[in-house]
Fold:
Amino acid sequence: MSFVISPTASALVVEDDEHISYLLKFILEREDFVVHLVRDGREARQFIEQNPPPSIVLLDVMLPFLDGFALVALLRAQPAWKNVPVIMLTAKTQEKDIVRALDEGANDYIVKPFQPAELLARIKRLSSRKA
Structure:
């Protein structure tokens, strides 16, 4: 059984590491997502405040200017973004960070380094739930 994403599926990737952001972009575009890459918390805040919500958000925690925890809270406060699936993708492995992200409204939490196939499975699960 193959997974089909609507032709208008989009993803917001908030990642300051250039290599990881391009890997995420490649993985998502291969699945027919339109990908919006932003590199820091300030750019992410502007994107959230000025654009319609994407199908899914992949969000690092440790970012310049504004961290991922603050961004999750910000996007959950935007009515149009309230139900957008958010996957935190971060090197922070402590239980308190995972709990904080989930409490702020993240749908999932993946620790770097991640396995691309596992990440894609989680993206598909959350994206299909929204459809």
In short: The CA atoms of residues 13 and 99 lie 21 Å apart. The radius of gyration is 13 Å. Strands lie at 10-14, 34-38, 56-59, 86-90, 108-111. The longest strand covers residues 10-14.
